[in-house]
TrEMBL record:
GO cellular component, one term: plasma membrane
Compartments (UniProt record): Cell membrane
The G-protein coupled receptors family 3 profile domain, residue ranges: 409-664
Top-level lineage group: Eukaryota
Membrane topology: Multi-pass membrane protein
Protein name: Vomeronasal type-2 receptor 26-like
Residues spanning the membrane: 413-435, 447-467, 479-503, 515-541, 569-591, 603-623, 635-659
Chain's gene name: LOC121393964
Keyword Signal on entry: yes
Keyword Glycoprotein: yes
Organism in which the protein naturally occurs: Xenopus laevis
Pfam families xref list: 7tm_3 (PF00003), ANF_receptor (PF01094), NCD3G (PF07562)
Keywords, alphabetical: Cell membrane, G-protein coupled receptor, Glycoprotein, Membrane, Receptor, Signal, Transducer, Transmembrane, Transmembrane helix
Predominant subcellular localization, coarse grouping: membrane
Length: 673
């Protein structure tokens, strides 16, 4: 079985009767792989066969991420190496591997049997090479208990025609000079042939007659008449016979009168080699997988549970009978032999420092990654539109997130918007009802109406920010908000400038007198609004907003948002309104000391202070928010700043109209501005 004889150039006339040891090792590896045994012990003989086997096993197991739990070498002279045998037993007792491979040469069988007779081995599943049938000669209680249920790989059986009849007609009387036949007969029938033997006094000895019938012997160890090695020898002889027949048939008819003489005189050895039909020098590597059971009364049951075919192309086919309970008698089912429990789906393998390759830790997949198979080497990243589930074993679609009317935040903002809209409409109604009263006239009726209508539109435009974003909404909402809000701030600035002009026009020789009572305030509102309109048109023409599905900002949601297109244009609008508000604040602050009663300068100053505070805090809050929260921040800023204008400028007027009506009479002297 030595692999050196695989070299057909060096050994062209060498033919095996059994498969080479490499095929046997490949077969055992395939059995391990078939059952998923990745943590395996190995006991080898202290010779070239054992060391070659260890090297081959080590390399072959790594091909499917398996490894050797321990490797022990069985010495030949067991009685010299008692401590060594004890070390082997300690390795077996200490290992967590439930499967151990025995690959030893036949001459080490006695050392192996001695080892198992000295110690009570833990329950393991043993897989043995073709040496195993030789162990039957050394059967002892501890060995039978430990090896009960072992799996062995033996060459495939074959039927020899006529051998059964020959077998039952066999008698040692025909082979009186064959000592091996006599010894075998004595062991089978527990008798002795008359010859020179050492007799123990007082003991009764049964004499062998040679007429015993083999059908009465316990032949369970040998099975039926489909033998293994015997069949290989049989086929080898027939292969040579067919080669000789082929050469004989090729001779001229004149040489056929004496076959033996003809072959001796006319056939060279190299011709016989060429006539043998076996280019690889080895028989087909076909093995049976057998499970051995040691039964009472020295009976042995061999149960075929499958087969392994190792082809010359290195393709290997394994078949195992699934109905057989492979765990018997030590395990209920197929035993597991792993360094650690498999990593369940949802986790991945992580290299354990300093441990063999098949020993590893299991690490749960991080959020956004998944693994859907056992012992996954890596977690797979979920596509952008999906997320990992809680178990991390699947990717599920992300939820679509936007500020909806049905959300608690969306419904609350909608309610606040409608309430403020109605409040502004109510104030407008009050102003229209008391249109000709001094307090309404003193607050510039036209600008007040423009301010109230623009504030109503400001509140109303926030509804464009709520709901599932569409392309139309994305195009309109920022432009609409910017335009109507600019009108509101422009009206406040125009009011402030009107106050300053009116008070300064009373000074002697003032050139501002000609502007009092004109439509200057309306013109200012139009001019300031045109500036914002220009920015908006440039924005829409160059890089308009569009609907975008943001899959990155939040790991569990797809944020359906309006991408502003150009952040620069968006903040230019905010900056433009901020500039108008700052100018209003400065102008109102300068006019705050003008005569009281209906002077709005203080109210405008406070309203602009609120306005500027809201929008200054808006910028960092907006930039740090994502998804629907970002939209909610902008809505809050719009509602808060608009409410500031409504409450600080127009609220006191309503207070005076309803709670201080004595101040709203024509007899009261006021300065109208």
């Amino acid at each position: 079985m030595h692999p050196v004889f695989n070299n057909r150039v060096q050994f062209p006339s060498f033919y095996r009767t059994s498969p080479n040891e490499e095929a046997e090792i490949d077969g055992i590896v395939q059995i391990l792989k078939h059952f998923g045994w990745k943590w395996v012990g190995l006991i080898i003989s202290d010779d070239d066969t054992g060391y070659r086997a260890r090297e081959t096993f080590t390399y072959a197991l790594t091909s499917y991420n398996a490894c050797i739990a321990f490797s022990s070498v069985l010495k030949y002279n067991f009685y010299i190496y008692f401590n060594h045998e004890n070390n082997i037993f300690q390795e077996i007792e200490r290992t967590t591997a439930n499967v151990i491979v025995l690959f030893i040469s036949i001459k080490y069988t006695y050392s192996f049997a001695h080892l198992f007779s000295m110690y009570k081995m833990p329950q393991k599943t043993w897989i043995t090479s073709s040496f195993f049938p030789n162990v039957m000669v050394y059967r002892q209680e501890e060995l039978e208990i430990a090896l009960n249920g072992s799996l062995s790989l033996l060459v495939q059986e074959g039927e020899i025609l006529g051998f059964k009849q020959f077998f039952y007609g066999f008698s040692p009387n025909k082979y009186t000079k064959d000592e091996l036949t006599a010894d075998t007969w004595e062991k089978l029938f527990h008798c002795y042939f008359p010859r020179v033997v050492t007799y123990i006094p007082g003991r009764t000895y049964k004499t062998c007659t040679g007429n015993e019938t083999l059908s009465d012997a316990n032949l369970s160890i040998y099975g039926d008449h489909n033998y293994r090695i015997t069949y290989r020898v049989y086929t080898a002889v027939y292969a040579l016979a067919h080669a000789l027949h082929k050469l004989y048939s090729a001779q001229p008819p004149a040489n056929h009168w004496d076959k033996l003489v003809s072959l001796k005189n006319n056939v060279n050895p190299w011709q016989i080699n060429a006539a043998v039909n076996n280019e690889f020098g080895s028989p087909e590597a076909k093995f049976d997988i057998l499970k051995f059971f040691f039964l009472p009364n020295n009976n042995i049951q061999k149960r075929k549970i499958g087969n392994v075919n190792v082809l010359s192309s290195k393709e290997i086919y394994v078949h195992v009978d699934s109905s057989v309970n492979l765990g018997l008698p030590h395990f209920d089912g197929i035993p597991q032999s792993l360094c650690n429990d498999p990593c369940a789906p949802g986790s991945r393998k992580s290299k354990r420092e300093g441990a063999p390759s098949c020993c590893y830790d299991c690490v749960k997949c991080v959020d956004g990654e998944m693994s859907n198979r056992t012992d996954a080497p890596e977690c797979l990243k979920c596509p952008e539109d999906t997320k990992s589930n809680l178990q991390r074993n699947d990717c599920i679609p992300k939820e679509i997130n936007y500020l909806s009317y049905m959300d608690s935040m969306g419904s609350s903002l909608t309610s606040i918007t409608l309430m403020l809209f109605c409040s502004t409409a109510a104030v407008l109604g009050i102003f229209l009802k008391y249109w000709d009263t001094p307090i309404v006239r003193a607050n510039n009726q036209n600008l007040s109406c423009i301010l109230l209508i623009s504030l109503m539109l400001c509140f109303f435009c926030t509804l464009l920010f709520i709901g599932r974003p569409t392309q139309i909404c994305c195009l309109l909402r920022q432009v609409t908000f910017g335009f109507v809000f600019t009108i509101s701030v422009s009206a406040v600035l125009a009011k402030t400038l009107t106050v300053i002009i009116a008070f300064n026009a009373t000074k002697p020789g003032s050139k501002l007198t000609k502007y009092v009572g004109t439509q200057l305030s309306i013109i200012l509102v139009i001019l300031f609004s045109l500036g914002e309109m220009g920015i908006s048109l440039g924005w829409m023409a160059s890089n308009p907003p569009f609907v975008e599905a943001d899959m990155i900002s939040e790991k569990d949601f797809i944020n359906l948002i309006c991408n502003e297109g150009s952040v620069t244009f968006f903040f230019n609008i905010i900056a433009y309104m901020g500039t108008l508000a700052l100018l209003s604040f400065i102008a109102a602050f300068l006019a705050k000391d003008f005569p009281d009663r209906f002077n709005e300068a203080k109210n405008i100053t406070f309203s602009m202070l609120v306005f500027c505070s809201v929008w200054v805090t808006f910028v960092p809050a907006y930039l740090s928010s994502k998804g629907s929260r970002m939209v909610a921040v902008e809505i809050f800023a719009i509602l808060a700043s608009s409410s500031g204008l409504l409450g600080c400028i127009l609220g006191p007027k309503c207070y005076m109209i309803y709670l201080k009506p004595e101040l709203n009479k024509r007899e009261t002297r006021v300065l109208i501005f």
